[in-house]
Amino acid sequence: MRGFGVFLGKEFREIFRTWRIWVLPGIVLFLAISGPILAKLTPELISSMSQSGDLGGAIITVPDPTWRDAYLQWTKNISQIVTWALVIILGGMVSAERRSGTAILVLTKPISRPAFVLAKFVSNAVFLTVTSVIGAVVTWGMTYLIFAEAPVRVLAEATGVWLASALFITGVMTLISALVGSQSGAAGLGFGVLVLLSIVTLWGPAVEYSPAGLLIAPNAVLLGTGMSIAWPLATSALATVALVGGAVLAFGRKEL
C-alpha cells in the first residue's frame, strides 16, 4: 500500500481544516448535552399538558426519570440522528474526490489506489470513534450533574455496541461511494441500506446472527434484556472488512 501513511495524514489534516470538524462533533455534542436535560424535563412536560387539558382530559402518570432514561435518550439519538447524518457525510467519501478530479491528482503521486481507499476509511473511522467517545463522556457528565448517578460501564458498553454498527455503516458507505459517481446517489443508496436493515430486525435470526442486530443492541444493553451480541459483533466486523476490501477492488477498476 504505497503512500498510505502520507495520505492518511493528509486526510486527518483535511478533517481538522474543513467543515467536517464541526458537523459530526457538533451534532454529537448537542445530543449529548440535550439528552439528559430532555430526559429530566419530559415527564414534567407531559404532566403539565395533562393537567392543562391539552391531552383531551387524559391523565397520564409518568414515573420519575432516572439516569437510565438519559442514557436511553443518548442511544436513541445516536442510533437514529447520528447514523443518518453519517450516511450523508460519508456519501462523498470517494465519489466527491472522483467528481472533483482530486483523485486523479492524488494518484499521479506515489500513492496506490488501495492506500487511497483505506486511508479514507481509517481516517473516518478514527474520527467517528473519537467523536463518539467524547459524546459519551459528555453524556455521562450531564447525567451525573442532573441525576447524581451515572454508571460508567453500561454507558460504555451501549456506546461501544453502537460504534460497532456505525463502523459497519462506514464500511457500507466506503463501498457505495467507491461504486457510485455522486454524493447524493451514494447517500440515497446508504439510506436504502439503513431502511433494509431496519426491516430485517423484524426477523429473529437476523437479529441474533447478523449486523442488523446491532441496530437494537444499544437499548437492549441498557435495559439488560439479556440479548446476546457476540454474533452480531463478529459478523459486523467480518462484513466491515469485506466491504472495505470490496471498495478497494471496485475503486481499482474505476476509470478516473
Short account of what is shown:
This protein has helices at about 5-15, 20-50, 65-90, 95-100, 100-105, 115-145, 150-180, 185-200, 205-210, 215-225, 230-255. It is mainly α. The protein is globular, with a radius of gyration of 21 Å.
What can you see in these coordinates?
The chain has 256 residues and is mainly α. The protein has one domain (4-37, 66-253). It has eleven helices and no strands. α3 packs antiparallel against α6 (113-147), α3 runs parallel beside α7 (152-179) and α7 packs antiparallel against α10 (217-223). The chain starts with a helix and ends with a helix.
Key phrases:
256 residues, mainly alpha, 79% helix
Strand and helix map with partners:
Layout: H1 4-17, H2 20-52, H3 67-90, H4 95-100, H5 102-107, H6 113-147, H7 152-179, H8 183-200, H9 204-209, H10 217-223, H11 230-253
Q: Helical amount among residues, as a percent range?
A: over 70%
The rounded Rg comes to 21 Å
Largest beta sheet, briefly? none
Name the beta content range: under 5%
Q: Figure out the total of helices.
A: 11
